[in-house]
Amino acid sequence: MSSLIPSSQDLWFLPLGGTGEIGMNMNLYGHDGQWLMVDCGVSFNEPLKPDDLLTSEIVCADPTFISEQKERLAGIVITHAHEDHVGALPFLWRRFKCPVYTTAFTAEVLRRKLVQVGLTDQVPIIVVEENETKKIGVFNVKWLALTHSVPEPFAMIIDTSAGRIFHTGDWKIDKAPITGEGFSPQRFKALAKENILAMVCDSTNALKEGYSASESDCYQGLLSTIAVEKNRVVVGCFSSNVARLIALGRVAKESGRYLALIGRSLINMVSAARATGHWPDDLPLIDAAHLGYLPREEVLAVVTGSQGEPRATLNRLAADNCFDLSLEADDLVIFSAMRIPGNELAIDRLVTQFRGRKIRTLQSHESDVSIHVSGHPCRGELGDLYQWTQPEIAVPVHGEPKHLDGNANVAEQNHVPCQLVGRNGDLYQFSPQIRILRQQVKAGRIALLR
């Protein structure tokens, strides 16, 4: 399996995870005898095989192909701090033992994870900045800032003697993000002059028309929803959505409530945001242990578990065995997150449990205003980026098969000459000829925590 070795004329792309599924992203680029890994993520509560009824708590792509030839792995690049892009690295790094390149915020989040697995100060993390270029083996990698739902999301240009690739990472066009600067079309329009051979692109919302709403719209929606409430409000969201946490901090301030976080991952993320200057100094947090002493109308708690995860805080609140907070009839639980495909049953079970105790719930599809916005591009945004960058080849990733097909369709409509749609384990050849060799590597999943 590890006999696949790219020559100096070859430029290859090999996804091991995240292509044909949402989550556990793990991508390899091959050129001149070396490989570059982009992202190393996890998924939660997933089966190891498609028909398995048993699920494992934390799952990642099987790294065997690259760990068996780790001397050829020049480095690992992490695009941003979401779990499906960085979460597996602390568990897998001992198999790779190579430098990790990422930006300051993601590095801060990663270091905290490494401490938890006994790798304190053992992993060489090279911190990069916007527009900086690093030589990683035979690859020259340049970082380009984007907008997404986490601080410091980056795309990259991967430059080789056999061609130039634009890897988008996760992105959207947000002109008014809550954290960081607004999306700048200029830097991407400039790529049209740089002969981009292949654009490897996020497909999550490729079936949705138009443009994704701004995080600022979500802030306004949450404010108008929470400001009229007279009882406790709990918001379930992803811990890594720092923009949403900042928005809720502002909502608390403007609606006369105290904000508390329940869940270690939330507290860690805000701590990392503070350490890297992304958390506003004027947004205080109270200790969750103090929530029980507050009048109902002054409580705003942000918790983990918006996907119905069995051990997360929302599940404990539904069962009324959360140490820091008890909910009563007519309190409100807001789900400020998308329903990730496959989690619908778990979420519905949670909602039924709350409603059985007469606790109200509100999901984004039930609300007239934005209480959640996606961090991913819809078809309008995809079309814009294809037109600006004008790649020769479109490579949809980060999505289920229907999303990949939708992305390829947008690329075709926007005059990208070639679309390559594949799956994990397929070998995409960009140079010297353009083609996909199907299932060249055995792609699978491994459990990091059962």
TrEMBL record:
Keyword Nuclease (UniProt): yes
Domain of life: Bacteria
Domain Metallo-beta-lactamase: 23-222
Molecular functions (GO terms): exonuclease activity; metal ion binding; RNA binding
Cited SMART domains: Lactamase_B
Pfam families (alphabetical): Lactamase_B, RMMBL, RNase_J_b_CASP
Keyword field: Exonuclease, Hydrolase, Metal-binding, Nuclease, RNA-binding, Zinc
Protein's recorded name: Ribonuclease J
Species assigned in the record: Marinomonas transparens
